[in-house]
Amino acid sequence: MATHALKLSALAAALLASHPAFAQSSLPAVTVAGRNADAPVRIGGWGDTPVAKLPLQANVLNSERLLDAGISNLAGLTQLDASVGDAYNSAGYVSYLKIRGFDLDNRFNYRRDGLPISAETALALGNKSSIEVLKGTSGIQAGTSAPGGLVNLVLKRPDAQLLALSAGVSERGTLEAAVDWSQRFGTAKAFGLRINAAGAALRPELRDAQGERQLLALAGDWRISPDTLLEAEFEWNRQSQSSQPGMSLLGSKLPDAKAFDPRRNLNNLPWSQPVVFDNSHASLRWQQRLSADWRAQAHLGVQELKTDDRLAFPYGCSAENAWDRYCSNGDFDRYDFRSEGERRRSQALDLSLSGKLAMAGLQHQISAGLLLSRYQAHLGAQTNQQVSPGNVFIDQPSPPMAEPNDVNTNREERSSELYLRDAVQIDKQWQAWLGLRHSRIERESVRTDGSRATDYSQSFSTPWLGLSYAINPTLMAYGSWGEGVESEVAPNRSRYINRGQVLPALKSRQFELGLKSGSSTVDWSVNAFDIRRPAWSDIGACDDNAGSCTRKADGYARHRGLEGQADIKWSGGGLLASAMKLKARREAAIDPAMNGLKPANVAETSIKLNARQRLAALPALQLNAGLVHEGARTVLPDASLSIPAWTRLDAGLRYEQTRGKQLLIWRAGVDNLADKRAWRESPYQYGHAYLYPLAPRTWRASVEVQL
Question: What is the CA radius of gyration of the chain?
């Protein structure tokens, strides 16, 4: 399949070279960065209300920003928003994010055009017009979800006539090509069609991690009448690439990041196979205007995922009886992990009604609806067997396992969610925001050998309240309070007394105060938040299988922070800036030694800057510069060890050429300009401490022609 990417690259390059705009000199520049504050944020749940007028924090990152920054997956969001951090981002694998210090749940914290999807896969961005990031508890937007926030992928839909071809090269020979075509036709342009196709042959700086990526997406609509719109779309994308295991502690020592080659891949055995994500998505949406003030919508979405998850997995050091780190001399135990033919299916139907009305002398903007969703995960037997050990410094081949030897867990989850939102205009300055979602969930799980079945249901309501005050037409103060909820069962293992039993719903709550402003020159906001999420602990003798361990509520995690973000525009340039100062601590734990501890892999200081400036002498040339600063992160649950803070500098340029209606855009960039060596993040996963290095200096270049 990699040859398809090469053919696409060659075709795009040939079309570009043959086009008269290719050699045309520059003309006045085209502005590509729209105002974030003017953009409605669909994931916020308040219709077309602009971000600057909502009593919550959200960020809308359009596709142009992502292209200029060289971002091709969700993990790249950590470059642009200080509230978004890495949460176990391995090259070639699923993107895992955290917001406000809380890990997002890839089953429940992601949306696609507002409908819930699974992010347990590699999600393509080539047919996305923007990515929306909602920060904070999401109880009025989601039945169950982790409390950090939500991420919504907004699809490109048919637009006016458009044909854009692009080709790019980066790293050690990665080649990419893409086509974006849109057309309206028929009487009064009632029909629209948009096609996005892309292919890439991946040759990253990380060694032994070559792969390929493809995308094909079609979106169509039919404007049946001025009041009726029918939209349909289909997307298929595939990624096949070897993934990157994490580094770890060497005995009791934190290895020197400057001495570790960030290009080294511990998954470099002759029998290692790529992780393959094969995804398809489809949706149908009907929108009906009932009157000047009222609209109805029905939105159906289906997602099908197929995954072959494979890894030569380093885990622990049996020679030193240390299972959460590697040996002092760099040795590690190695496992052949293979879970092939995993299938996941998500279905969602959202029925909603929204409009305006006057009641009790006040103006109300109301939306109400019903969301029905279903998630299924059907997994086969897996291989998870220890093979010959390895070493972080020396390649040591080992034979793979021949047959699956372990069970997996199949899941089925159903939910029905009733929601009501009301934005009440009290007077010209004061506005109240009221929301309530009532959810009922039903969840089942069973191991692939038919054992350890669980089946339970829960119901809960999650309210949300906000109050905003318009200080002037461009400046608003607000306060809000809301709840979110998560649902779990005790681990279904023999050492637990309450194994497989449903646990009380984890109700988190958040307070937030802020100021927001939006104008033609600057959009900015500052806010303070306080999130408290209940925590679970294993109490008793939990290191053996004696059945004397209990999973129970044990205090809470409390994350308090200050955020600031600004999108500043000036003649010929601008600055996208964000910063977060976070205090994340464990409180009220049964074991007093746990109280006051920082969570692993959470940076308490984060700064992201992205500047752009056009040159007066050459206005078609835009220079870009980026800075990412992350504070220290703890490595172990007892917070006894931390990785140092780090700062990365990026640089790039964008050059535009026009001729008539045609536009040619050249982009080039260097990430990690100074080739900084550092540990980027320190996830503690599966009872093991991992370290991921900052990627080495990486270059990229691309050209796009809009015909």
Answer: 25
User: Phi first, then psi: what are they for 574, rounded to 5°?
Assistant: 180, 175
Residue 603 sits at φ, ψ, to 5 deg, of -85, 130
- The sheet with strand 97-99 has its strands ordered as 84-86, 97-99, 102-103
Given a contact cutoff of 8 angstroms between Cβ atoms, the answer to whether 83 and 578 are in contact is: yes
Quote the CA–CA distance of 486 and 415 in Å, as a whole number: 13
Instruction: Quote the tokens at residue 590.
Output: 């049964």
> Do 544 and 495 touch, CB atoms closer than 8 A?
yes
Q: How far apart are CA 285 and CA 636, in angstroms?
A: 47
Q: Are 624 and 635 in contact (CB under 8 A)?
A: no
Q: What would the pLDDT profile of 249-288 be if each residue is shown by its tens digit?
A: 999 999 999 999 999 999 999 889 999 999 999 999 999 9
* CB contact at 8 A, 508 and 462: no
| 465: exposed, middle or buried (Cβ count in 10 Å: 0-12, 13-18, 19+) | middle
* Tally of residues, the chain: 707
Report the phi/psi class of residue 601: left, alpha or beta, with left for phi > 0 and alpha for psi in -120 to 50: left
Condensed to tens digits (0 to 9), the pLDDT of residues 411-459 reads 999 999 999 999 999 999 999 999 999 999 999 999 999 988 999 999 9
Residue 474 dihedral angles phi and psi, to the nearest 5°: -115, -5
Integer Cα distance of 455 and 443 in angstroms: 6
- The answer to whether 300 and 349 have CB atoms below 8 angstroms apart is yes
Q: What pTM was computed for the model? A: 0.93
Q: Distance between CA atoms of 335 and 686, rounded to whole angstroms?
A: 14
Beta strands, E only, 250-361: 275-289, 294-314, 331-359
Which residues, at least 6 apart from 290, have a Cβ–Cβ distance to it below 8 Å? 227, 296, 355
